[in-house]
Amino acid sequence: MTTLTTTTSPPPTSPSAPSSPRVTGTLRVTGTLGERYREILTPEALDFLTLLHDRFVARRHELLMDRQQRRQDVADGIDPDFRAATRPVRDDPSWRVAGSTGAPGLEDRRVEITGPTDPKMTINALNSGAKVWLADAEDASSPTWRNVVEGQLALHDAIRGTLTHTVDVPDGEPKEYRLRSTTLTDLPTIVFRPRGWHLIEKHMRYVDRAGVSVSASASLVDFGLYLFHNAHELVARGRGPYFYLPKLEGYREARLWNDVFVLAQEYLGLPQGTIRATVLIETLPAAFEMEEILHELRDHCAGLNAGRWDYLFSVIKAFRTRGDSYVLPDRAQVTMTAPFMRAYTELLVATCHKRGAHAIGGMSAFIPDRRRPDVTERAFEQVRSDKRREATDGFDGTWVAHPDLIEVARGEFDAVLGDAPNQVSRLRDDVEVGQHELLDIGSARRAGATVTAAGLRSNVSVGVRYLESWLRGVGAAAIDHLMEDAATAEISRSQVWQWIASGTRTENGVPITRDRVEALLAEIVDDLPRTPGNRIDDAANVFRAVALAEDFPTFLTIGAYSQFLVGSEVDQP
Ligand SMILES: CC(=O)SCCNC(=O)CCNC(=O)[C@H](O)C(C)(C)COP(=O)(O)OP(=O)(O)OC[C@H]1O[C@@H](n2cnc3c(N)ncnc32)[C@H](O)[C@@H]1OP(=O)(O)O
Ligand SMILES: O=CC(=O)O
Ligand SMILES: [Mg+2]
């Protein structure tokens, strides 16, 4: 095992060497070191990560404990609601967020492409013609050590215009990938999404001054490495260090991020406010604290994003034991026009524009297939109507999963925005959304949507196939012509869990039981083609653990990461 540890020397790559904060703990890298890994895991970068851990691991831990308490409250029948204690923040009309002011490349975000940070996807995304690229270490990424470090290397090289990639083509010339420009301002603005607060990075161990040893925080590792290596370079090249912040559950978690930013900027000699963050509102508790989240991050906040897939997952997770009236129909039947989903997006746009923040729409999961015009036409139609609704509702931009969808989404936003870079000035004072609208979960089934045998089969099948991909280190996959990632897979497995726990019957009256799902799982696994190296049996075991366990695991990726990714072959460089 190669071990890298922190040093105490000042970072030579940082134009303004850290004057003050000294590190008190140590950070040890235990992952195998592949080619060029030392360019990312420099002693100076590790010092910076150590400082972030010295200051923030204890608070991260406390906030994760708070999440547990809130989950218990909802299970006990206490519904989430807007907080009385923070009413003054909501009632104070005087404050605004920094938005895109002084953040070049964030004024016009009408189409954002998302995707993982392997070299090929990085080049394809940056050549795609989108306004922004969400470089994803989260939902679209399987957090193998290799993906974590090599993703940082790809970003490092892309920002400097040196990234290239070659793909061998059987019986043909290798395919060469290059950036279409080495000038960063000619390319989509990069917004990096680190992993959420709930995740750990097991290839780094942090020991505090008292000798307590824990795995590193995945958020601090991803954020810290990206910022340390690229912040000054991005600014010098006409952009900035921009982040998407995933899976926050409340304003105190936003405050933690803000404090991380302040310390990081001070340490690296960046003017305060250089960092800009767009926060995903993708958990039910966060929907009740959008304004407070903006307020906490106001000097660093560019906007909010409606992360619909994790939001749905969060809704299921919150109410999973509250009985039949909280049961959602088949995943495919819960669309963005379901009243409770519409309430959430309407509130998001209204909140953002009231505070000068961009409202960014979410991901339609339909993806095109270049070999299947019928599939592509259906994807275009679905994406077109989704983006039309978002643009008309006041969103300033949106996400697409695939380069071939950029034109479709752009068309809908161009039709509403014209030459204006955004519509932040369009206030949505007409929106009246309260607790009732956000929690009207039963509305989807009351409107006629149902739980079907096909929906159950699809959840099991998609869940297993996605996990099989994730276990091979591929965190986003096209399955049945839909984009699947960690968030959509969470919905599949948690619906199965909830349906069993709630004694739900499919529309033809057959109860969904553990035995029925076991039988279905066996049938699906038997039918899947076996190829050398595939991980179908492991995927089935993970699915069983997260969909059929007595106690609901809070995230499907946590156990599977420790059990299957860390130290496995797929994890090695
Ligand atoms: C819930 C959420 O958080 S959503 C955000 C997280 N999820 C994501 O980011 C998913 C992003 N999308 C993807 O990863 C991909 O589109 C997939 C996996 C769904 C499908 O990818 P593929 O099977 O490769 O699609 P397909 O074969 O049609 O791709 C055609 C070309 O477009 C490229 N491409 C496809 N999607 C993307 C993308 N998002 N970014 C960059 N390039 C892309 C492919 O690399 C391929 O390039 P090539 O011709 O050089 O080989
Ligand atoms: O991250 C986005 C989501 O929909 O989840
Ligand atoms: Mg998400």
Automatic annotation (TrEMBL):
Q: Which GO terms describe its molecular function?
A: malate synthase activity
Active-site residues are: R193, D485
Ranges where the record places region Disordered: 1-25, 83-103
Keyword Transferase attached = yes
Q: Domain Malate synthase C-terminal: where?
A: 451-563
Query: What CDD domains does the annotation carry?
Result: malate_synt_A
Segments of skewed composition (Basic and acidic residues): 83-94
User: Domain named Malate synthase N-terminal: which ranges?
Assistant: 28-85
- InterPro entries named among the record's database cross-references: Malate_synth_C_sf (IPR044856), Malate_synth_sf (IPR011076), Malate_synthA (IPR006252), Malate_synthase_CS (IPR019830), Malate_synthase_TIM (IPR001465), MS_C (IPR048355), MS_N (IPR048356), MS_N_TIM-barrel_dom (IPR046363)
Gene3D superfamilies cross-referenced by the UniProt entry? Malate synthase, domain 3, Malate synthase, domain III
Pathway field of the UniProt record reads: Carbohydrate metabolism; glyoxylate cycle; (S)-malate from isocitrate: step 2/2
For this record, the Gene Ontology CC terms, alphabetical, are:
cytoplasm
Which residue intervals define the domain Malate synthase TIM barrel in the entry?
189-441
Q: What is its EC number?
A: 2.3.3.9
Here the segments flagged for biased composition (Low complexity) are 16-25
Instruction: Supply the alphabetized keyword list.
Output: Acyltransferase, Glyoxylate bypass, Transferase, Tricarboxylic acid cycle
An example GO BP is: tricarboxylic acid cycle
Q: Which family does it belong to?
A: Belongs to the malate synthase family.
The name of this protein is Malate synthase
Organism expressing this protein natively: Cellulosimicrobium protaetiae
- In the UniProt record, the gene name given for this protein reads aceB
